[in-house]
Amino acid sequence: MLGKLIRLVMLLGLVVSVNAVAAVIQVLPGKDTLKNAVEAAADGDTLVLITGVYTGSVNITDKSLTIRAGSSTKPVLSDMTFGFNNETKTIKIQGLYFFGQSGYGQNIGDQYTLIADSVDIVNSHFEDALVNIKGNKVNVVGSDFRGQIVQRYDSTKPQLWVEQSAEVYLAGNTFDKYTKTTQAQVLLKNNGNNYVAGNLFSRNGVTVSNGALFVEGGTQSYVVGNRIEMKDYSYSVDTPFNGQFINTTSNRNFVFNNLFEVDSKSGFDTKLSAMRFVSTSNYAEIVNNNIIVNGAMAEPENTESAAIEMTGNAKGVIAGNILLNVKGNQIKDTSTNQFVNISHNLCPGVEGDVTCANTAITFDSTVNYSLPADSPAVNAGIQGDYFDIDGSRQDIGLHGGPWGFDFYDAQRSDDTKPYLYPYFDQISLKSSGQVDIKVLSVARFN
After folding, report:
1. pLDDT tens digits, one per residue of 11-57
2. DSSP bridge pairs for 8
3. What is the pLDDT of residues 260-302, one digit of tens each?
4. Which residues neighbour 82 within 8 Å (Cβ) at sequence distance 6 or greater?
5. Where are the domains of the chain?
6. Could you report how far apart the first and last alpha carbons of the chain are, in Å?
7. How far apart, in Å, are the Cα atoms of 120 and each of 10, 15, 139, 145, 196?
8. d(CA 34, CA 55)
9. For the chain, percent helix, then strand, then coil, each to nearest 5?
């Protein structure tokens, strides 16, 4: 039955492979060996790195290149200046380990700038590094961004910054251990279409102003199936949490089936100055997300804050979300537009709060929302507007709708299959009874 419902309208295949014409060149570890290989390579060549440490300075300006790890190898680029600067060429990076400067004081971290027509980063690792990308098309898939970049480059810079690109795909990445910054872990600025799916954004016991993802401007953004977490969170009296986990200001924003989770440190209240798990100022559909606070949570100091908020001239839908143990305002519409539909959200513990749902849905907070057959969230979403993948009325929470949180979440840890990230068009299901799907598929590299 599902085969009749699903229509594949576009398949994006990203495979870092060997060009049949260009040369494949093995590069040995050492100082300036990669630099020398880059200078000697022709346009379109593939450089294969093996296990070992590569140092020196690499700046590519005149050719398209693929730089990848050999089979079952771990090439480490350590304390290296690495850049690409040619808007008409392409750069593909796969299976490499970038380690910036680490330690205390002013010399922490390295910054890598990639300016190209197309940038592909797959299965790579960045430790103590900032990555800035400008490209017509950008794919960052299955990679890790970790470390504490707090000194060398000012604290307003994110771990990954992508700007002025026509299409950006971030899928299956991990962003972790980034502290004391006034910027989000990922900044997408003035891009055309942003697709953010199946990523893990994690912070451990830190204070931030803009938490996981900030989408600034652009045409449209899909934020789907991501896990956004803050573990072992505690606070000092002078530095309560003041931030937004996801803030997206594209012209059209779709935030579906994400898990937001805060774990308070034992013995502490989660002190909040202002917390917004999702915030948007333009058209948005914020549907089927779970927002969960584990442990004690104090009332926010700022009574204007809300877990989900629409501001400015925003309009759209906030529906089918589950909010557990969230204090203060659950859902808030402060926009000047009167076309915001807030309905069919579950907020156990605040039953009757019309800011959470304008329909009379009230459930015991002890109910299991993981959607067994008897869950009250099954077939309880907006009737006639959103659907599950089988065409039935959508379930409430991150397991409802066609997106499938579990599917996205599992791919970060499964190394035996290719990455596959679908983006579903709900509108097509409403109008034609079929689901149009745009798919990003990526071959894993072993």
Report:
1. 445 544 444 567 999 999 999 999 999 999 999 999 999 999 999 98
2. 437
3. 887 765 444 444 445 577 878 788 889 889 888 776 665 555 5
4. 57, 58, 59, 98, 110, 112
5. 75-420
6. 35
7. 19, 9, 5, 15, 15
8. 8
9. 5, 50, 45
